[in-house]
Specification:
Blueprint lengths: L1 H29 L7 H6 L5 E7 L2 H4 L4 H6 L4 E3 L7 H13 L3 E8 L11 H4 L10 H7 L5 H6 L3 H5 L1 H4 L1 H8 L25 E2 L9 H12 L3 E6 L6 E2 L3 H8 L4 E2 L10 E3 L2 E2 L1 H16 L2
Parallel strand pairs: 1-2, 1-3, 3-5, 4-6, 5-7
Antiparallel strand pairs: 8-9
Helix pairs in contact: 5-12
Length: 292
């Protein structure tokens, strides 16, 4: 029995050491990467200067054509992240401030994403390699129910989110394999999808007094950043469009551009414009807010 216990103890210690070593190796790789996505691009960056930073979900990523801002002499990057929520947008802005970015204007897409305060696992996991190296990230995740496992168990986060930050992604970071996420100054254009579902139903969607939206407002105010918050277009054949008016009742400062671009020819799906629609919409935003 004694020998079995000692054998078990050795196995346990070896396993723990292996997990610690793997955790250190993976983390070291991520700390040297800056060309796979927008999160590592910001985390491993130094102070930048922008006239315009775009934040939000895919409805920001696919709707604001950053090169059109640049044509007007406005240094711009679209940091919208497909699948992301305001949880991730707030944290990304915190990291920019921490790295002493100088930002004149933030355009925030806040519409459908106001209806929840959850983290988007697929996007939020991209911050986790840095959780032991950043108090900002640690604090932001501290309210999550699985924080203790993610923070205190070596290598747990890489196993739990293996498809996002596991071996394959670590290897691609190691060899500095680029993705398209940083192309076009962060803007991701969509094509016309002939088989797209051009119907949507927002009837059961309800906006919240969103904690992370409030954080973004506070960060901008504290750092003298002009915050422009907009709701972006939906296809015409959408039920429950009064959702956007409900948002306005919660937050009168949010500009409603839900119907700024109409016609299925401008949409790739009901909630996402194609490149033609995005360019039309971006031109409207530039005219309304940056014409001077």
């Amino acid at each position: 029995m004694k020998y079995f216990f000692l054998f078990f103890l050795r196995i346990l210690i070896i396993t723990l050491l292996l997990l610690v070593v793997l955790d250190l190796v993976y983390t070291k790789v991520y700390l040297k990467s800056s060309n796979r996505g927008k999160i590592d691009y910001v985390y491993n960056s130094q102070a930048q200067q922008y006239d315009v930073v775009v934040l939000g979900s895919s409805r920001a990523n696919n709707h604001f054509v950053a090169p059109l801002f640049e044509e007007k002499g406005l240094k711009t990057f679209n940091y919208g992240m497909s699948g992301g929520h305001l949880f991730e947008a707030s944290l990304l802005l915190k990291l920019m401030v921490e790295r002493q970015y100088t930002i004149k204007n933030v355009i925030l897409e806040a519409d459908l994403n106001l209806s929840n305060e959850q983290m988007a696992d697929g996007i939020a996991s991209k911050f986790l390699p840095y959780i032991h190296n950043s108090k900002t990230i640690e604090k932001h995740f501290s309210s999550q129910k699985d924080f203790n496992q993610l923070f205190y168990i070596p290598f747990y986060r890489y196993v739990d989110f293996e498809t996002r930050i596991g071996f394959r992604e670590m290897f691609f970071n190691c060899i500095h394999k680029r993705t398209v996420h940083l192309d076009n100054l962060g803007y991701y254009p969509l094509g016309k999808n002939p088989n797209a579902n051009m119907k949507n139903d927002l009837t059961n969607l309800k906006p919240l007094h969103n904690k992370y939206y409030e954080e973004i407002k506070q960060i901008c105010k504290a750092n003298n950043i002009n915050l422009i918050v907009v709701m972006t277009p939906m296809c015409t054949n959408t039920k429950g469009l009064d959702y956007f008016e409900k948002v306005r009742q919660f937050y009168p400062e949010i500009h409603n551009y839900e119907n700024a671009v109409e016609g299925d020819q401008y949409f790739s799906s009901c909630g996402h414009m194609n490149d033609r629609g995005a360019r039309k919409f971006t031109a409207i935003i530039i005219k309304d807010f940056f014409n001077k």
